[in-house]
Write a structure and sequence with these properties.
Elements lengths: L5 H22 L7 E2 L2 E2 H37 L5 H28 L3 E2 L2 E2 L1 H4 L5 H9 L6 H7 L5 H6 L3 H15 L4 H26 L2 H16 L4 H29 L5 H18 L2 H16 L3 H14 L2 H17 L6 H17 L6 H13 L13 H26 L13
Antiparallel strand pairs: 1-2, 3-4
Length: about 425
């Protein structure tokens, strides 16, 4: 009998959590809390959710360290940083930054974390008072942007890892990966094999932890609904719509403008040509799993050469996560709004920087956004437990943002091919 796909397991878990949480909430009074053997069901839900979140926290530092070191070393050692690599990386960094700013703009404008003029912390049953969280964030306001860069260079990397100072860890990993390619081949190969081994072990551990995601999601969602009822659904629905709107702006306004202005191609024809890849990405929520379909669509339907597609698309599946970066940034800002915090320009700059780097560093990880959002919340001092409130619509949004990631990869391959002088099947000067 075929095993049920993980995303269906998670969706079923969310539905069951809604039923269980709703029943517990309806029978809970000031003097009575339904439970089993004297243990309230809410406490059981909290415990299950805490176990899952602790498992995610456990893998953050080694996963980030190994993935960025291996990623930077791969890019720097393969001779891929020439003209083709430079154009590709410039496109990926630029479009990811634009996606992040679009997410910031939409969430700052709509403010889904505010309902009827009040923060939705209690509606979402977020732990910690607004004053407590404000105290954690105030020390990180970084009104002087230079302070942010100071935190990027920790005096003690071991202490930075123990304290979860993610900016310092990311910067150290980037430096280590780069200079690993600048030493003798024998030593570099040994180091690379070690860190690649660590990364593969961490990937296996992440995959193992994600097997329990349906149970963890059940606990987190059931706990939220048990305590807050279905009031939590309204702000989360507004947030989900904000994310979808921001993704649509990036995918169907900004990227087509780039295709037409820089690539001199017909955006609609490119979109039509790569639609099989985008649909595959939507159904699988995995850029890596979609890669064979992406390459085939770009080569056969758009007319990009294998020379370009074989470099640009695999690299994009690893480092180009426009939709993921947008979502990470929007999620962190939404949680801050839910606590009633007004984040300064310095803190928002930190969110932008960490969202950009983590969208690259954890791109290939199953449910990468959960790990990345945990990193961003830690970096700016917000409680990591707030992730639980985002899980209600996470799977649907994951499918949407993965499709945007793939669309960004296809746009990059098309533009780079055109800048390299290729005609393609979608050029403006071609008829039909």
């Amino acid at each position: 009998m075929p095993k049920l796909a993980l995303h269906w397991q998670i969706l079923i878990a969310i539905a069951l959590a809604g039923i269980a949480g709703g029943l517990v909430n309806s029978y809970t009074t000031e003097t009575f809390a339904p439970g089993l053997f004297g243990v309230p069901f809410v406490a059981v839900f909290d415990y299950i959710g805490a176990l899952f979140l602790n498992a995610l926290k456990m893998i953050i530092v080694p996963l980030i360290l190994s993935s960025i070191i291996v990623g930077v070393a791969n890019i720097g050692s393969g001779g891929n940083l020439g003209a083709l690599g430079g154009k590709t990386l410039l496109f990926y960094v630029t479009t990811s930054l634009v996606a992040i700013f679009i997410g910031l703009f939409v969430v700052n404008t709509v403010q889904p974390g505010i309902s009827d003029g009040e923060p939705v912390r209690e509606m979402l049953d977020l732990e910690g008072s607004a004053d407590t969280v404000r105290g954690l964030v105030e020390g990180k306001d970084a009104s002087d942007v230079a302070e942010i860069f100071l935190r990027m260079i920790p005096p003690n990397i071991v202490m930075a890892a123990a304290e979860g100072q993610m900016l310092g860890i990311i910067f150290f990993a980037m430096l280590f990966g780069y200079f690993m390619t600048r030493i003798g081949h024998e030593l570099a190969e040994t180091l690379f094999r070690f860190w690649d081994g660590v990364f593969n072990v961490m990937m296996r551990m992440t995959e193992f932890i994600m097997l329990f995601a349906p149970i963890g999601v059940f606990g987190l969602v059931a706990s939220t609904i048990s305590n807050a009822g279905f009031d939590a659904v309204k702000p989360l629905t507004v947030f989900a719509l904000c994310v979808v709107a921001a993704l649509a702006l990036h995918a169907f306004v900004f990227l087509p403008l780039l295709l037409r202005a820089v690539g001199r191609v017909r955006p609609f024809k490119v979109l039509k040509g790569v639609s099989p890849a985008m649909l595959t990405a939507f159904s699988t929520a995995s850029s890596s799993a979609t890669l064979p379909v992406t390459i085939e669509s770009v080569e056969k339907n758009v007319g990009v050469s294998n020379k370009v597609s074989s470099f640009v698309l695999p690299l994009g599946a690893t480092v180009n996560m426009n939709g993921t970066a947008l979502y990470e940034c929007a999620a962190a800002l939404f949680i801050a709004q839910a606590y009633g915090l007004e984040l300064t320009l310095g803190v928002q700059f930190t969110i932008v920087l960490v969202a950009l780097l983590t969208s690259i560093g954890v791109a290939g990880v199953p449910s990468a956004s959960l790990v990345a959002i945990a990193i961003i919340l830690t970096a700016i001092g917000l409680p990591i437990d707030a992730i639980g409130a985002l899980l209600l619509f996470d799977r649907i949004l994951d499918m949407c943002r993965t499709s945007v990631n793939i669309w960004g990869d296809c746009c990059c391959a098309t533009i780079v091919a055109r800048l390299d002088g290729e005609q393609t099947n979608v050029a403006l000067e071609r008829s039909g």
